[in-house]
Amino acid sequence: MQSTGLKDKEETEIFEGDVVRHIDFLLNNETVNKVYFKDGSFMYDVVVDEYTYDVPIGEIIENSIVEVIGNIYENPELLESVEE
């Protein structure tokens, strides 16, 4: 797994393939999804209502709370509700 060079709220380094909880207080929204690499950036899918937006993880960290809760290899069950 490749490091994003970023850290979560607990100062845990964030890697590609990590499963992250994202809490956005402005949108009153919580999302759990994986960090992935696309078009030269580390991205994260933010779900708002029925829409999904891929957003650079660095932008998410600047504007909300992010917490690494596992990774896709050791904790695939964390994404089961996302994939349904």
UniProtKB/TrEMBL annotation:
Alphabetized Pfam families for the sequence: YopX
Which parts of the sequence belong to the YopX protein domain? Answer: 1-80
UniProt cross-references to NCBIfam families, sorted A to Z: phage_TIGR01671 (TIGR01671)
Q: What is this protein called?
A: YopX protein domain-containing protein
Q: Which organism is it from?
A: Streptococcus agalactiae MRI Z1-216
